């Protein structure tokens, strides 16, 4: 794991690193607070230690200061244990044992919700102890092992427990014992409180570094997938729950002011660490042992305030313009497919092509952007026969977007305009939409093509067929451009040495590696050249499509043999 992490770190000075270096130098001068001494081992830590690390959702790490110095995770463990409980047991079960409301009380208060007799939220000690009991395992050793596996998968390397801090917590954690026995009395926990507390104290004593926690925060920013290892640790739906509770409860009595000034879901620990998460972008960790009376790192708060302000990372800074979902739209009389057409076909499409509208979507599809997209689709459908929606530049479609698009497919059934989709299967980024359409009886009726060019070609063919445009089936050498200018006698001479061949649509004329024996001249129809896409299995990409087109389903070729073939190599 360490080797993986090493490759992710920036090797050259970058603007972000320069900013962090300047920020570290300035905030190093901030005084106030002191290391937590109610846990004796924490009180021994050097108060001058100070590190800042930022990890991006693609695994880039920016760091300055004491980012590799180990310290214990303390309460920053709580959201991750909560996420594991949700992942393992589901929301209904977890909500029976711990709520999601802020308390307005200190993190170690001996108080429960008077209505449900459960802890107010998983970020206070009572809630974290209740969550700790949910760690699976038949024995205490298995539960401890599972806990360490969880944090190791989040950090991207193997983590261990600081035994000195663990013993210090075990010897002085009398208030937590009072909380645990109170919850045993209300049936919020069922096992021996000392056994549950043993695991809780150990989870708080897991050794991490500033870089470790930045990666763990970036895992939440990356919808639960570790950006270094690519391992999915949490389902995205539970990451939302974790971030929601972190946003309202993660900074204890400072949570409201934090949300107002910084605006990022966060969690602090009394060892002097703070993590902050900007979904879809970055995870931040600051480590500086001196904490204030509320248990939050003094320098950590200052750093996060400045990072949020400098880079406008407040969650309610709106950067989403839903109108940008439409990249462009055009009509087929101005932009046509790559299929070569005869002069007569081009003239007809120049007249009738306005009946085909192509709409290019881009970005992420969610309610607001999808509503804009479908409104534009409806406007184009008002004077079109076909509306092609190209998803090539769309990188995500959430559940609401999928539902709206399926409804749009249903609403356009029987209308004058036919809905056509393109580029839905470029890769797995639009799998939710593909599945939603496949599961809907209405989605089955929407024509889907591999790309916009193929969709546009099909629409053009429909226009030509609708206009009864047909070349007929008979032809002569003199009709083929290659032989233009030959005299009638020369044409007859050519005709005497060529042989007409007819291929059905979809037949393969030749494959890579076939012996070059024949020279082909295409008289009717079209021929495509396809190549395999590297790394995509059997997926193929069309790189060329040539010759005048015909609505007929039959392709006709004339060929002159370089050597008399014993059988036709053209049967596909």
Automatic annotation (TrEMBL):
Domain of life: Bacteria
Catalytic reactions on record: L-glutamine + H2O = L-glutamate + NH4(+)
Enzyme Commission no: 3.5.1.2
Gene3D superfamilies (alphabetical): DD-peptidase/beta-lactamase superfamily, Jelly Rolls, STAS domain
Keyword annotations: Acetylation, Hydrolase
GO BP annotation list: glutamate biosynthetic process; L-glutamine catabolic process
Residue ranges constituting the STAS domain according to the UniProt record: 346-437
Transmembrane segments: none
Residue stretches making up the Cyclic nucleotide-binding domain: 482-529
Entry binding sites for substrate: 75, 125, 169, 176, 200, 252, 270
Assembly and binders: Homotetramer.
Protein name as catalogued: Glutaminase
């Amino acid at each position: 794991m360490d080797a993986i992490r090493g490759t992710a770190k920036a090797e050259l000075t970058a603007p972000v690193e320069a900013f962090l270096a300047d920020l570290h130098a300035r905030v190093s001068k901030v005084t106030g607070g002191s290391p937590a001494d109610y846990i004796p081992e924490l009180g021994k830590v050097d108060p001058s230690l100070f590190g800042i690390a930022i990890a991006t959702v693609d695994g880039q790490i920016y760091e300055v200061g004491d980012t590799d110095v180990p310290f214990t995770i303390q309460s920053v463990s709580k959201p991750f244990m909560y996420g594991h409980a949700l992942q393992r047991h589901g929301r209904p079960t977890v909500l029976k044992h711990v709520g999601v409301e802020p308390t307005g009380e200190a993190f170690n208060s001996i108080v429960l919700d008077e209505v449900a007799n459960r802890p107010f939220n998983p970020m206070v000690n009572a809630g974290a102890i209740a969550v700790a009991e949910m760690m699976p395992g038949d024995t205490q050793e298995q539960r401890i092992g599972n806990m360490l596996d969880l944090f190791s998968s989040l950090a991207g390397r193997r983590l261990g427990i600081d035994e000195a801090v663990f013993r210090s917590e075990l010897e002085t954690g009398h208030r937590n014992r009072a909380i645990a026995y109170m919850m045993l009395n209300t049936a919020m926990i069922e096992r021996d409180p000392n056994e549950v507390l043993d695991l809780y104290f150990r989870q708080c004593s897991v050794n991490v570094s500033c870089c470790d926690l930045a990666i763990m925060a970036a895992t939440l920013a990356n919808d639960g997938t570790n950006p270094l290892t690519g391992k999915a640790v949490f389902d995205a739906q539970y990451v939302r729950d974790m971030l929601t509770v972190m946003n309202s409860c993660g900074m204890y009595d400072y949570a409201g002011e934090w949300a107002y000034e910084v605006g990022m879901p966060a969690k602090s620990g009394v060892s002097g660490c703070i993590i902050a998460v900007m979904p879809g972008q970055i995870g931040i960790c600051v480590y500086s042992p001196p904490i204030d009376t509320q248990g939050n790192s003094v320098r950590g708060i200052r750093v996060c305030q400045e990072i949020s302000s400098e880079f406008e990372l407040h969650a309610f800074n709106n950067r989403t313009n839903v109108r940008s979902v439409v990249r462009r739209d055009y009509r087929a009389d101005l932009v046509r497919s790559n299929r070569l057409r005869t002069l007569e076909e081009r003239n007809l499409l120049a007249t009738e092509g306005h009946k085909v509208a192509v709409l290019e979507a881009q970005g992420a599809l969610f309610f607001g952007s999808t509503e804009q997209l479908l409104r534009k689709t409806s406007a184009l459908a008002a004077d079109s026969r076909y509306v092609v929606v190209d998803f090539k530049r769309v990188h995500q479609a959430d559940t609401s977007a999928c539902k709206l698009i399926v409804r749009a497919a249903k609403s356009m059934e029987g209308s004058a305009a036919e809905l056509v989709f393109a580029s839905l299967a470029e890769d797995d980024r639009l799998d939710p939409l593909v599945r939603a359409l496949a599961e809907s009886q209405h989605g089955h009726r929407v024509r889907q093509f591999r790309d916009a060019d193929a969709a546009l070609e099909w629409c053009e063919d429909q226009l030509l067929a609708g206009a009864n445009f047909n070349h007929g089936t008979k032809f002569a050498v003199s009709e083929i451009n290659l032989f233009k200018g030959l005299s009638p006698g020369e044409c007859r001479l050519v005709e005497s040495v060529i042989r007409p061949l007819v291929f059905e649509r979809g037949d393969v004329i030749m494959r890579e590696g076939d012996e070059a024996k024949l020279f082909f001249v295409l008289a009717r129809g079209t021929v495509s050249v396809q190549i395999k896409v590297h790394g995509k299995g059997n997926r193929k990409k069309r790189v060329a499509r040539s010759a005048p087109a015909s609505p007929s389903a039959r392709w006709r070729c004339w060929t002159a043999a370089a050597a008399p073939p014993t059988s036709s190599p053209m049967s596909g």
